[in-house]
Specification:
The chain is mostly beta strands and 378 residues long. The chain has a single domain, classed as Porin (Beta Barrel), CATH 2.40.160. Helix content is 4%, strand content 56%. It is built from three helices and 23 strands. The strands form two sheets. The chain has a 16-stranded antiparallel beta barrel with strand order 4-7-8-9-10-11-12-14-15-16-17-18-20-21-22-23. A two-stranded antiparallel sheet has the order 1-2. A hairpin with a 6-residue loop joins β22 and β23.
Amino acid sequence: MRNIRTPIFIGGVVLSALSGGAQAEITILDKNPQSNVLLAPLSLKVGGSIRPEWIFNNGPEPGYYKNGHDGGTRFRFSGDYALTQDTSIIGYYEWGVDLAHALSWDGHYNEDGQRDRQRQLYAGFKDDRYGTLTYGHQYGIYYSVVGIKSDVWDNDGHAGGTGIGISGDYDGGNKPKNSIKYTNDFGPVTLYANYLLPEDDLHTADNLSYRRKGGGGLGFDYKVTKELTFSAAYSYTDAKIKDNLYNEKDYHQQLSGTALTWQPNNWYIVGTASYYKDYVPSTRERTLSHFFAGDGYGVEGFVGYTFNIDKPFLKSIQPYVAADSLQLKGDEEYHANHVYFGAGTTIGYGLSVYVERTLAHSSDKEPDSTWVTVFYDF
């Protein structure tokens, strides 16, 4: 998924020097508590991450992989309007852009891919005592609690529920649209809950359509010690699959997972385990009666150590090793196992470089690959 890097644990949420939560942003407008003007309680910030990337497969690959392409550039805009000292109205918008596609740079983008898309858009209320309540297109329970913990290397997302469902914008695994979300801290516990409202049809390549009828989730982070956090989440989605003849079948999708995160000194060590029920699309020919793979499970692990260099043009280096495994039961006869070796180098001035090698062993004969990604974050 390549959303965050060099993780640190703050208040039960993984942040990073390359994620929206931890990097420096540009303040467009700051609160002025000394003024009575209408806009005095308002703060506005912008930020972003520009990500050129190269992928080298040991086998066939699209030309834009090794030519250089956009690895997930995004821009974000946030606002906070203070109603009282403890309560604010908040809003957030994140816009994903394939810069090569937007510039029509031939040979450097997937011509069937999207030029730009809405990654998140939500608004709500934040209160120091009663928590945060938001509505819109935002992170779901599974990703907020489990998925984000292991979303820390480049070519990740192969076994966690964040990236293996039909669509993270619909099924609740990543960033469900049209959702209500609540979070609050209770001592060492951070509680998460959400409700998924019905969503429009998502048409698939199988001449079928997927419609979310509703859903919800519940999760928590528990700080066992200062360095150790245990997390668990459960999410469900009631969905309907329809064909062109108006035949339909209901599915009760279930996604659950746990994570154990340990951060002694400069180490970041995490392991996650997830269980899927009618969540992963079938790897065979998908039909109305067998659109999803049934049961399955995924495990992920990451171990990284950050060496702080703190020199001009070299701030830190984090070598790491990671692994994951996805197993689907029943008639699928599918498995995918990966081992990753990599290193992230923080140069400074918003620049970082990640180099990573993926060793793959899967039923669909996925090739080994090498990833090189440059991040410019502001």
